[in-house]
């Protein structure tokens, strides 16, 4: 009888611990996604790009937040793969596909590469500002900024959309109830 009680107590402790880890994961994901939303709203502007290109602390904050998002989505991916083996679900399958897209098309390396190109373009625009400030159209200083901002906005918006979908799906799929298997 004592063995049965001990096994039941141990099972309850493990279940609570697993549930607590899942809740902690979701809370961390929520906080990191919130941080990303704040950073990305600044980053998708020309002034935000200039800050990213020239402020090492801001750049470090953006990249650390992105790294954390990739860390959490990897954990979620592994949990959902286990869940998908048992419960074939279109929602799980869609979330797994979004995570794969995030990990491939918006990996930290590709993000850094894209923003590196954008920083190079920003430096070019600023270097030639005196020559283009009075131009008209796409070749003007303002025109070049608008084109760069449009590219930046689209890219950051795609990243943010995927991040938000992954977070929302992690909650919707009741991740806390499938943690640990």
Can you summarize this structure?
With 181 residues, the chain is mainly α.
Report what the structure shows.
- The chain is mainly alpha-helical.
- The protein has one domain.
- 87% of the residues lie in helices and 0% in strands.
- It contains eight helices and no strands.
- Helix 1 crosses helix 3 and helix 4 packs antiparallel against helix 7.
What's the topology here?
Elements: H1 2-43, H2 46-54, H3 56-86, H4 90-105, H5 108-127, H6 129-132, H7 141-172, H8 175-178
Helix pairs in contact: 1-3, 1-7, 2-3, 2-5, 3-4, 4-7, 5-7
Record keyword descriptors for this entry.
181 residues; 87% helix; mainly alpha; single chain
Total helix count?
8
Number of domains: 1
Q: How far is the first residue's CA from the last residue's CA?
A: 28 Å
The percent of residues in helical segments reads over 70%
Mean pLDDT across the residues is 85
Strand content: under 5%
Inertia-based shape:
elongated
Largest beta-sheet details:
none
Low-confidence stretches: 2-19, 177-181
Q: Gyration radius, to the nearest Å?
A: 22 Å
Strand segment count:
0
Structural class determined from secondary elements: mainly alpha
**What is the H/E order?**
HHHHHHHH
């Amino acid at each position: 009888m004592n063995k049965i009680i001990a096994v039941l107590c141990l099972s309850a402790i493990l279940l609570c611990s697993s549930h607590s880890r899942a809740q902690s994961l979701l809370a961390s994901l929520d906080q990191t996604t919130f941080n990303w939303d704040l950073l990305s709203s600044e980053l998708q502007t020309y002034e935000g790009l200039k800050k990213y290109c020239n402020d090492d602390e801001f750049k470090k904050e953006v990249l650390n937040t992105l790294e954390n998002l990739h860390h959490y989505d990897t954990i979620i991916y592994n949990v959902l793969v286990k869940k998908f083996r048992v419960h074939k679900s279109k929602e799980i399958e869609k979330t797994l596909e979004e995570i794969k897209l995030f990990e491939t098309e918006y990996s930290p390396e590709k993000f850094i590469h894209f923003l590196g190109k954008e920083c190079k373009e920003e430096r070019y625009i600023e270097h030639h500002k005196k020559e283009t400030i009075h131009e008209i159209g796409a070749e003007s200083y303002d025109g070049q900024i608008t084109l760069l901002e449009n590219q930046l906005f689209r890219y950051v918006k795609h990243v943010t959309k995927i991040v938000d979908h992954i977070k929302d799906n992690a909650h919707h799929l009741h991740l806390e109830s499938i943690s640990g298997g």
